[in-house]
């Protein structure tokens, strides 16, 4: 079946569901449906370990009876099943408490334009090709160095599908998308020392993935580089967070400025709109309509139109992130962030990664973090880390079993530089982040 025909059929199911909801007594309703097919292949020690085909789909319906909400879902898309799901959702709404903030997003905010964002690049789901790709990545890693003695395997994933969202304000829109990834993780041993590391690549377009050999080689090089890791003494030193990890730092910022954290009064950035949070040279913009972007979308999970936004302006907190519910709780208007953020781009200070090391001088270059020791309420930050000790801008030796600690307030305010070499394999595009100093707890 042609993809356009499938999309049209799903839109028809969504429309039928919304009509049923109104007939059953709902004053408002919204429905979304997704359909995904894909393949996942993993190998270990050059042998196929797992092959899994995916063909999933389902429809979720939320109804509003006045200010009472009820939700239900079904994987059966027959008219009988849709009618039953609607009936259950309406029944549930009768028993939920009235909430003045519930309901659809305001009609004037709903998306009406749906340009092609180049998110769909289908390829045949060929298990033999997938196996060959995974094994090639793992082989490249295993053949790199005799000290690589074991493997946690390589994995190739391909997913193609579509999503449709509709509500009783009139939107019934859908889009197709694809996502491909390849990863590899190996283990190296040298006497009693054993280390592991990984590499991965991801894209909407399979032809733009890094080659299997490149992924395997990167995994091997990173793993071997960690052999001989030492413990270091407790100190307060500059810290360079690798670009692969830097997005997590801004992920904590996302959590702190999200409407849910704000109306619950559980964020260290509560009532800080317009305040200086980052250095004056740092800016963050959101670009939801980037062609082929991993977080691109014309509308959020409530059908609200997405738009270009300035998130941080000259280091100042210029906006919070609202859903319609959190916005009403805070007496403001949603800005299209139901379901997450849409392609954040963090400004950089122009240096290469090598230049960032020179700027840091002596300190810790962090390439791995462990644990979840981050408190969004207070800003307290403490995570296990591993990486490399640097002196005079030159990497000296790998280190492990350390903890980096501070507060997000100080970390954000004391960003010295952000590298120009970016990692854009997610919803945040950023370079490595150099922090003026952090407490390092070691031996």
Would you write up a description of this structure?
This protein has 443 residues and is an alpha+beta fold. The chain has 2 domains: 223 residues, PmbA/TldD fold (2-Layer Sandwich); 207 residues, no CATH class. It is 24% helix and 38% strand. Helix 1 crosses helix 2 and helix 3 runs parallel beside helix 4. It is globular. The model has no long low-confidence stretch (mean pLDDT 96).
Q: What is the secondary structure topology, with strand pairs?
A:
Elements: H1 3-23, E1 28-44, E2 47-65, E3 68-74, H2 79-95, H3 127-142, E4 148-167, E5 172-190, E6 193-203, H4 212-225, E7 235-241, H5 243-257, H6 259-263, E8 284-286, E9 309-313, E10 316-317, H7 324-329, E11 344-346, H8 353-360, E12 363-370, E13 380-391, E14 394-407, H9 408-413, E15 415-423, E16 428-441
Parallel strand pairs: 7-12, 11-16
Antiparallel strand pairs: 1-2, 1-4, 2-3, 4-5, 5-6, 7-16, 8-9, 8-11, 9-10, 12-13, 13-14, 14-16, 15-16
Domain Metalloprotease TldD/E central: 121-227
EC number: 3.4.24.-
Pfam families: PmbA_TldD_1st (PF01523), PmbA_TldD_2nd (PF19290), PmbA_TldD_3rd (PF19289)
Q: Using the alpha-carbon principal axes, give the shape.
A: globular
Please compute the radius of gyration using only Cα atoms: 24 Å
Strand content: 35-45%
Mean pLDDT across residues: 96
Key terms for this structure?
single chain, 443 residues, PmbA/TldD fold, six-stranded antiparallel sheet, five-stranded mixed beta barrel, globular, metallopeptidase activity
């Amino acid at each position: 079946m042609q993809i356009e025909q499938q999309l049209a059929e799903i839109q028809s199911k969504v429309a039928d569901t919304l009509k049923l909801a109104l007939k059953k007594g709902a004053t408002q309703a919204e429905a979304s449906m997704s359909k995904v097919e894909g393949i996942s292949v993993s190998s270990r020690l050059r042998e196929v370990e797992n092959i899994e085909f995916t063909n999933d789909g389902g429809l979720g319906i939320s109804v509003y009876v006045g200010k009472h909400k009820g939700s239900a879902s079904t994987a059966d898309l027959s008219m009988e099943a849709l009618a039953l799901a609607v009936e259950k959702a309406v029944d549930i709404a009768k028993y939920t408490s009235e909430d003045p903030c519930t309901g659809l997003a305001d009609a004037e905010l709903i998306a009406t334009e749906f340009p092609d964002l180049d998110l769909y690049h289908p390829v045949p789901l060929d298990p033999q090709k997938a196996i060959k790709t995974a094994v090639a990545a793992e082989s490249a890693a295993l053949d790199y160095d005799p000290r690589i003695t074991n493997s946690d395997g390589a994995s190739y994933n391909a997913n193609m599908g579509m999503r449709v969202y509709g509500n009783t304000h009139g939107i019934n829109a859908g889009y197709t998308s694809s996502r491909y990834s390849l990863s590899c993780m190996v283990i190296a041993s040298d006497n009693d020392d054993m280390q592991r590391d990984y590499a991965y690549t991801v894209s909407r377009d399979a032809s733009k993935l890094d080659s299997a050999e490149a992924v395997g080689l990167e995994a091997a090089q990173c793993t071997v580089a960690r052999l001989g890791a030492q413990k270091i003494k407790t100190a307060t030193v500059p810290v360079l967070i690798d670009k692969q990890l830097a997005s997590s730092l801004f992920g904590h910022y996302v959590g702190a400025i999200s409407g849910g954290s704000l109306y619950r009064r559980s964020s260290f950035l509560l009532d800080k709109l317009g305040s200086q949070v980052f250095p004056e040279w740092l800016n963050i913009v959101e670009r939801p309509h980037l062609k082929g972007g991993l977080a691109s979308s014309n509308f959020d999970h409530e059908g609200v139109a997405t738009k270009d936004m300035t998130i941080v302006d000259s280091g100042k907190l210029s906006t919070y992130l609202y859903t319609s519910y959190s916005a009403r709780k805070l007496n403001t208007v949603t800005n299209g962030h139901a379901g997450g953020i849409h392609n954040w781009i963090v400004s950089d200070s122009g240096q290469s990664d090598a230049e960032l090391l020179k700027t840091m001088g002596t300190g810790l270059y962090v390439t791995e973090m462990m644990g979840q020791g981050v408190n969004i309420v207070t800003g307290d930050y403490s995570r296990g880390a591993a990486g490399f000790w640097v002196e005079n801008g030159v990497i000296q030796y790998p280190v492990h079993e350390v903890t980096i600690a501070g507060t997000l307030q100080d970390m954000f305010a004391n960003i010295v530089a952000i590298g120009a070499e970016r990692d854009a394999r997610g919803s945040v595009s950023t370079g490595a982040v150099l922090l003026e100093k952090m407490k390092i707890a070691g031996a």
